[in-house]
Write a structure and sequence with these properties.
Radius of gyration: 19 Å
Oligomer: single chain
Strand content: under 5%
Helix content: over 70%
Shape: globular
Length: 201
Amino acid sequence: MTLYLRLYWEFFKTGLFAIGGGMATLPFLKDIGATTGWFSQTDLMNMLAVSESTPGPVGINMATYVGYTVGGVPGAIVATIGEVTPSIIVILIVAAMLAKFRDSQYVANAFYGLRPASTGLIGAACAGVMLQVIAGITSASQEDSILMKFSWDGAISWRGIILALVLLVFTRYIKKTKDLHPIVFIGVSAVIGVVFHFAGV
């Protein structure tokens, strides 16, 4: 029972403070992994890749995955409910008050403050993902500095850099491919990853 309560509480906090979408949940998810040991940073990066190529936000997907690995089907249900509970509460409160405070300057000021906070969380998440995937740097714990986590042996992932640059060119600069659906690029990237793995590249 203690495990289920902690699963609920940890993902409740993630859902409560992750304003701005799935990417904004990454700093909170990284903290859960570091403090509980339920999953590694590599697990988180893998789940991010899965979440971006399948329906569902990364926070809910991660809650279900972690809940299942730690506490089975009941754990998956409890963690997922914990993740979505804050959103349901906030939506009900906002829906009840929106009509009354639609033109309120206080509400406008609150959203003015939330947007930069959300942008900062998403920016931190993107920087963390790039450091993990491109340079192999994981989040430092409280005891270790980020430099201690860095290994110069095979530090830079040239495959990741090349793939990112190729995708950038095809999605931004080539007319025939830049209007293709993102799922096409996700699928091609997945195939390339599998080929690289089995080819030992």
